[in-house]
Fold this protein.
Amino acid sequence: ARAEGPFIGFDDFFTRYDLDQDAVVSRTEFPGSDALFARFDLDGDGAISTKDAPAGLKKPEFTQDALRWRQ
């Protein structure tokens, strides 16, 4: 089961939704609507990746809270 609540950062988003851990969140992994997915998929390539992260949040390291969900 996925935890619900506010995201700490973009890394937390990936921790929750990148189920196959391939560094992208596909449409099948994303539980929201098609419209919301399109808003997050800024480059329109059909996947949400670090390329789509808001400016200032493109960090490869995970927060401690995000790491807790990977265990």
Observations:
- The chain is about 30% helix and 5% strand.
- The longest helix spans residues 10-17.
- Strands lie at 25-26, 47-48.
